[in-house]
Amino acid sequence: MHKLGRNEPCWCGSGKKYKACHLAFDSKLEDYYFKGALVPPRKLIKNAEQIEKIRKSAKVNIAVLDYVAEHIRAGITTEEINRWVYDVTTGFGAIPAPLNYEGFPKSVCTSINDEVCHGIPSENVVLQEGDIINVDASTILDGYFSDSSRMFCIGQVSEEKKRLVEVAKKSIEVGLAQVKPWGFLGDMGQAIHDFAKENGYSVVREIGGHGIGLEFHEDPWVSYVSKRGTEMMMVPGMCFTIEPMINMGTDEIFQDADNGWTIYTADGMPSAQWEIQVLITEDGYELISY
């Protein structure tokens, strides 16, 4: 880290003097660094102005998923969901972050039953009674990013699928209980993994959460099969997603060879995922998007 004088402007862009802003924070971070902890670089720490703009982006993202929740039902196509997301997002003056991201062709991901994530909306995919679907929305507003997803049960869903969806949601709460400043991402990762295993499920290893706010995908990569006391330290100003993918059967997955995006469970059994976006605060966390 570049050393600043006490009276120089703080590196975070707040406009405050360093001694009144991040001096004590940097000293604490340095102590942990020399003890061997993986600490976040300055570029991952959001200032108050950035956080407020991320919150505004998240309000749009939440509104998008609220709209989907009100209208989703059996008989609609996933392309209809895509149109809803595009229309609601742009109606707020925002942009759907997935659209054209690294070639992704749609405004939202719609992943049904054994699709783990990155399902591509289509006029040919019609929601059926008994399906479970993850709708993953991400928003750019004035250059700031938000991201969250929800599961939906379509009509009468089997008890097995319903339980999977409920456990996946509960795993977020279990993980959140471990989210606190100066703890480690691995604390959360192990709690989620242990909870899923206790309930007879597996957790996808290769795909995890991510930092977000100034870009769609930032560091750190967030694992849910990690160990307590490992991975990056969580410190105030960090913003990232919590989005474990919980499988009814094996944790093994494969990618659609034709579209290059959609991820499936290797055994064809269902998968469920909820995603939230959190900000680490001085005394805990703030739920940014859900």
Q: What's this, in brief?
A:
By secondary structure, the protein is an alpha+beta fold. The protein is built from 5 helices and 17 strands. Strand 13 (253-255) and strand 14 form a beta hairpin.
Provide keyphrases for this structure.
290 residues; 17 strands; alpha+beta; three-stranded antiparallel beta sheet
Report on this model:
The protein is α+β, with helices and mostly antiparallel strands and 290 residues long. Helix content is 28%, strand content 24%. It is built from five helices and 17 strands. It has helices spanning 23-34, 48-71, 78-91, 159-176, 185-198, and strands at residues 95-96, 109-112, 115-117, 132-141, 144-153, 183-184, 202-203, 209-211, 218-222, 233-234, 239-242, 245-247, 253-255, 263-265, 271-273, 276-280, 285-289. The strands form six sheets. Strands 1, 2, 4 and 5 form a four-stranded antiparallel beta sheet that branches. It has a three-stranded antiparallel beta sheet with strand order 3-14-13, with no helix packed on it. Strands 7-12-15 form a three-stranded antiparallel beta sheet, with helices on one face. Helix 2 (48-71) crosses helix 3. The model has no long low-confidence stretch (mean pLDDT 97).
Query: What would you call the shape?
Result: globular
Structural class: alpha+beta
Oligomer: single chain
What proportion strand?
15-25%
Q: What Rg do the Cα atoms give?
A: 20 Å
Please describe the biggest sheet, giving its number of strands, its sense, and whether it closes into a barrel: 4 strands, antiparallel
Helix content: 25-40%
Mean of the pLDDT scores?
Answer: 97
Helix-strand pattern: HHHEEEEEHEHEEEEEEEEEEE
Q: What is the number of helices? A: 5
Low-confidence stretches: none
- N- and C-termini, Cα separation: 34 Å
Question: What's the number of extended β-strand segments?
Answer: 17
